[in-house]
Amino acid sequence: MNDLSRQATRLEAIGGRYDPWLYGAVAALACLGVVMVASASIAVGENLGVGPFHYLVRHVFFVAVGIGLAVVAMRTELKTVERYNQLLLLGCVVLLVLPWLPGLGVSVNGARRWINLGLSRFQVVEAVKVLYIVWLASYLVRFRDEVNATWAAMLKPLGVAVLLVGMLLAQPDFGSATLLLAITAGMLVLGGVNLPRMSLPVVIGLPLLAAVAIFEPYRMRRITSFLDPWADQLGSGYQLSNALMAVGRGEWFGVGLGASVQKLNYLPEAHTDFIFSVIAEELGFAGVCTVVGLYALLVGRALYLGLKCVEMRRHFPGYVAFGVGLWIGMQSFVSIGVNLGVLPTKGLTLPLVSSGGSSVMMTCVAIGLLLRVSYELDRAERQVARLRQDAAPAEPADESPTVAPVSAGAYRSAVRGAAASAPVARHGRGTSRVEPTFGGFA
């Protein structure tokens, strides 16, 4: 076995480690979610006659399933995931069609967002978020030169997003549609799109979204009730006014775990969309700051890992980390903002905390992908460190064999293999790579 073969074998034997900060933030949020679902859902279960711990048992079950899916994602090489990028996009379209199939789709309050899986209903948009982020990350890798330089390459993912948004609005699901557009815009900016060119679709899209919200009567009622929930406290402002009362009762350190009054059939969806209000009432300002800090840590680590991956030319893992970070950050921001009355009422769950099935499971899958990114980044850093150590000239010792230094060409080849997982462009243009500038103006 020659020196290069032995060196390759040593590199393959090097493993990585999962980011402990991510582990800590995710574990803390998941544990908090179990505790608060138990506290917020007892009255709901008793009122519906399904037992006080029905929603707790259900939530723990889906968390367990989500952990299993996250472990699968954590143990899957990202290059394997990237290989099926086109199938992932097709899967997004198929999933959004399924709720319209007779016998499979389920309609709740006039919205067709779920499919019946027998044991439970599944909200398809939660899986679409994961699949779409992975596809868009792959697209930004394959066309990162053109995305920064041409209109066509920039507009293609926007066109795909508009198609998916149209299918979501037909369900209807305005919140998820807006979130998908925001994730697309954020990933394009972080992928290096030219900001002046990106401004035109934004200028056109924002008035259209506003029109969709304004010309739908029930959405307009939500906006007016958000501006003054006390004007119709028992009508359109009922949810928000009770949420604000829960937040106000919490003061500095809360009324105590389990002692919330608003969750006793006053606050609708206390265990799902408005669980943050229950947290504010029972744990107070200190609990609110803790929850916000945990989300800031999770999202911050995701964006940090994405930046480190891009710096090491591992673009696909980096863009996946950006996408997951943007998703969790935006959704948690909207959910918290709705509970605090700074955003109009919208049905988005608090990731990893709110009770739910499809939301909990798909968020766990996204976290699994994020942990896999951290593992492969750490592994690449260790491999590069080993290569640099092997490439350093050994100091000669008296009457002892010296280690032959690795040639410069072999070193560069090995570093590229360890630290650059971005695939070669498959669009055949033969242009030199332009590294993303995170939203350049040039």
Q: Would you kindly provide a brief summary of this structure?
A:
This protein is mainly α and 442 residues long. It has helices spanning 3-13, 20-48, 54-74, 78-83, 85-97, 124-142, 144-149, 151-169, 174-190, 195-214, 217-227, 238-250, 275-311, 315-340, 358-391, 408-419; strands at residues 105-108, 111-116, 121-123.
Task: Find the structural class using helix and strand composition.
Answer: mainly alpha
Unreliable spans are 397-416, 418-434
In what range is the share of β-strand residues? under 5%
Oligomer kind = single chain
Pfam family, one: FTSW_RODA_SPOVE
EC number: 2.4.99.28
Pathway: Cell wall biogenesis; peptidoglycan biosynthesis
GO molecular function, one term: peptidoglycan glycosyltransferase activity
Q: How would you explain this protein's 3D organization?
A:
This protein has 442 residues and is an all-alpha fold. Residues 397-416 and 418-434 have low confidence and may be disordered. A 3-stranded antiparallel β-sheet has the order 1-2-3. The chain has 16 helices and 3 strands.
Fold topology:
Elements: H1 3-13, H2 20-48, H3 54-74, H4 78-83, H5 85-97, E1 105-108, E2 111-116, E3 121-123, H6 124-142, H7 144-149, H8 151-169, H9 174-190, H10 195-214, H11 217-227, H12 238-250, H13 275-311, H14 315-340, H15 358-391, H16 408-419
Antiparallel strand pairs: 1-2, 2-3
Keywords:
442 residues, mainly alpha, 3% strand
